[in-house]
């Protein structure tokens, strides 16, 4: 079986499994988290600024999706305008990434990430009160457990130095939090008749167009090496990561997706250890185990609902 046939079979199996039970959606959500967790590696290897690598991630991601749909003979999915909600989500996707980068320019990475990763919890609460996705004590406990594990991975190192810079940095982080939360919620309420390929393509494309004003006049010199790493960013965290996230959000309740989203920082830390020699201490390892445990329990409960 060729690459085209393998890819086609992979997505067919996941789609069919998802229709039968939640296991397919859970697998796709985990794949999305792992793919997105590779972004730091591609960014570091490419050597581009955050805005430039973000543009390549989204724009090249949309090109890969275009190639994928062309190979499948499904270009009809991008000939349909998806509506203003999908367009808004493209804007939120770009906003999330840009505000995240800006936050880290003014406050510590730990501060920025900790605020941004409150998004799954807040999205779950919004879905509970406004979308009819009722949370029970177990769901809330598992999300909070994942968040606590995430805090352990950061060694609980929240701090404030220059007060004015930290306030500005935390403001950017809160804006990023709003964008990420909105991205999750809107993907849950988009009309089910709008195909996930249509949603993903236009979110990637519109997100890339929104980043263009931030990169004009700031393109660095190109080489074969950084172009290949930028292409990888478009393929894995761009095309595969965003597509899998959109598919998962169309299949899973917000609380389930939110719990599994914490697999992303685990993979980030693992890659840092495996590729860049970044150390792991006992607290961080324990945090990883807690997140994995919460995800496993949530996955088990989701696939055994009668």
Q: Outline of this structure?
A:
With 306 residues, the chain is mainly alpha-helical. It has helices at 3-20, 23-36, 39-46, 50-72, 84-106, 109-116, 119-130, 137-153, 163-189, 196-215, 224-251, 254-260, 263-276, 282-302. The longest helix is centred in the last third of the chain and has 28 residues, at 224-251.
Can you describe this structure?
This protein is mainly α. It has one domain. Helices cover 78% and strands 0% of the residues. It is built from 14 helices and no strands. It has helices spanning 3-20, 23-36, 39-46, 50-72, 84-106, 109-116, 119-130, 137-153, 163-189, 196-215, 224-251, 254-260, 263-276, 282-302. Mean pLDDT is 84; it is low at 13-21.
Task: Describe the structure using short key phrases.
single chain; 14 helices; globular; mainly alpha; 306 residues
